[in-house]
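Issue 218. Parser rejects a valid record. Input:
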Amino acid sequence: MDKKKIPVFIDTNVFVIDLRYKDDVNFRINRNFLDFVSEHGKGSTSILNLLELCGILSFNLNQQQISELFHYFPSKYRVGIIPSDNIESLIEIPAKDIMDIIYKKASFGDALIAHSIKEHLKENAVFVSWDAVHFKHLLSVKTMTPKEFLLSMQR
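Output the parser choked on:
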């Protein structure tokens, strides 16, 4: 399998750095990672991550800007939204499934994302987050930071 075609699930914090923290020490690596994923077309995130991003940025955006972010996000970053980017999507997650993840020492937000990944990603996927260490024990897929991912693509 071509390493560059590996499915990549991107966590919210990668997008937050790109959209809000241009002075972050990791901004350039973060941007290079997003460019790589955009170029190779195998990136995704979940509807939960997109809603989380909208919530984080809601403190600095008006209603129209938040709505535009939601609707144009997939094309801006050339990522898929799992299971769907439909604003009418119903999010149903059994509480037992979330509790099973929380029992492994996860915050509620991390448990939601981990559940989404377990439901929608194949074993050959990679989860990329600046908080990758928080997910290593929660996921069966590889977890990496954007920097680690880019280094792995050079090998």
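Fixed in the parser; the record now loads. The two ends are 14 Å apart (CA to CA).
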